[in-house]
Amino acid sequence: MNVEGRYQTKEVWRDADGQPLHPHTNYWVGGNTKFYGAALFRLRREDFGEVKHWGGVSPAWPIGYEELEPYYTRAEALYHVHGQRGDDPTDPPASAPYPHPAVSHEPRIQHLADDFARQGLRPFHVPLGIMLDEASPRTSTCIRCGTCDGHPCLVSAKSDAQVVAVDPALRYPNVTLLTNAYVSRLETNATGHAVTGIIAERNGAREEYRADVVVVAAGAINSAALLLRSAGPAHPQGLANRSGVVGRHYMGHVNSVLMALSKCPNPTVFQKTLGVNDFYFGSEDWAYPMGHISFVGKLDGETLKAGAPAIAPAFGLDLMARHSLDFWLTSEDLPDPDNRVTLDRQGNIVLAYRPNNEEAHRRLVAKLEHLMQRQTRCSVHGHECHQGLFARNLFIGQRIPLAGVAHQNGTVRFGHDPETSALDVNCKAHDVDNLYVVDASFFPSSAAVNPALTIMANALRVGDHLRERLA
Ligand SMILES: Cc1cc2nc3c(=O)[nH]c(=O)nc-3n(C[C@H](O)[C@H](O)[C@H](O)COP(=O)(O)OP(=O)(O)OC[C@H]3O[C@@H](n4cnc5c(N)ncnc54)[C@H](O)[C@@H]3O)c2cc1C
Ligand code: SF4
Predict the structure, then answer these.
(1) Radius of gyration of the chain from its Cα atoms, rounded to whole angstroms
(2) From 7, 22, 36, 453, mutation site for ligand 1 pocket: most ligand atoms within 8 A of C-beta
(3) How many domains does the chain have?
(4) Contacts for 167 with CB less than 8 Å, ≥ 6 apart
(5) What is the residue range of 417's domain?
């Protein structure tokens, strides 16, 4: 990871052994959606119930899919999602079509989709939040470039939270945005039942704000850290933490980037259009969920070089990137109370995480390897064209599993029972009357698709509740 990067946080966290950790997360208006790949999935309907996995049980949510469905539909409209309903065999029912047609595959990806279909799978077009108008390229805001995943969009054509939500909100006279404002603590009244002060550090100075209702949305790790830092006499374990769950059940998915190398080059520019969910709930030969297969943005030599040991030859990495299909594999990790965010004595974040449900991921990788070996013979190189499937870390020589916190969730879970959850079903703290947490923290389970659309839909749901409350 490039810790010198403009947007990358310079914070140093610690792992459970006290070793320094450079988290791959970005602090910016719009949060990590400025950098995301804009793959905007609904969780599957089954993800809201209890699901048995190889590694244990994924718990049920306190709300069902049907309660979130109208908000998924609204979030898809707001975030310009392009997709095709019914393509994906695991798609949950939806009350409206996608607002925009699916983003087309480039030829190499279409070829792969045809190959997967020939092998009996149902590959689908990944739902994407980009403002692309393929019917009118001249007027399309999105120019279909190669830097969508992992970089901000310089022409404001990616549906990120700044472009879609924050900037339009700022047109209202009663909305103010403060940047470079680090919220260090929330103060409460003597009983601890109401937040009375928001302490911020801004341009080196301490500032204090007050509000009738306070909504924390600092991302799953930082929201938990803020509540823990806000411990006081009425809540010595941390704010909203009578249950002791704040910071616990950290999840981030079991993820791999796998490069399938072939003798033929892969000239794809925008690669993230294809997904495979046929193994999401299991397969004929394995009864447990395995997860989701899709793509990262096209890797290049530069990306591979970031973090590569000095001995890695740049030419080799460039060549490799020109010939690779770059898959993104996600399996569900299960909520473990010992996987958690805590603070050290100086108040720095400590992230303890032991991966679980890994067999599901190994099986998913094996499925992909098998599929790639059974590809149609290439007309130039025959079956020898496919050189194998390699973990990206084999090339960059460094593995950074814990620092990869892109899909962080679950640290301030919502639920009906104040003994086992920190938030109620409206994402209001059970213990505090005017405090809400509305980001990825509330997830009781992580499912195995990308989280952002669920975070957006839930924010709209809580927004409706707040509107009623404030009316
Ligand atoms: C490279 C990359 C690619 C991704 N691709 C996808 C994808 O394709 N699809 C998908 O669904 N998801 C993707 N994600 C994940 C997605 O971006 C996150 O799930 C989502 O942004 C999380 O939203 P959030 O509101 O929980 O937190 P964030 O987006 O992290 O927002 C938190 C905000 O709080 C601010 N903040 C933190 N602490 C404080 C504090 N103490 N005081 C004040 N402000 C604070 C931060 O600056 C930030 O603006 C990707 C992430 C990355 C990094
Ligand atoms: S212009 Fe590029 S970065 Fe922007 S939305 Fe389109 S593909 Fe993504």
Answers:
(1) 22
(2) 36
(3) 1
(4) none
(5) 175-239+410-470
- Judge whether 123 lies within some domain: no
pLDDT in tens, 312-364: 666 678 888 888 899 999 999 999 999 999 999 999 999 999 999 999 999 99
pLDDT at 399: 35
Q: Ligand 1: residues within 6 Å at CB?
A: 27-28, 31-33, 35-39, 149-150, 181-183, 217-220, 222, 226, 406-407, 439-440, 450-452, 455
What is the pLDDT at residue 404?
86
- Answer yes or no: is 126 within a domain: no
CATH number reported for the structural domain that contains residue 211 in this entry:
3.50.50.60
Q: Quick one: which of 121, 98, 125, 120 has its CA closest to 110?
A: 125
Among candidates 222, 180, 162, which has minimal Cα distance to 23? 222
Residue 159 is assigned to a structural domain of this protein: no
Q: Any idea which of 264-273, 310-319, 457-466 has the lowest mean pLDDT? A: 310-319
Phi, psi of 414 (to 5 degrees): -100, 160
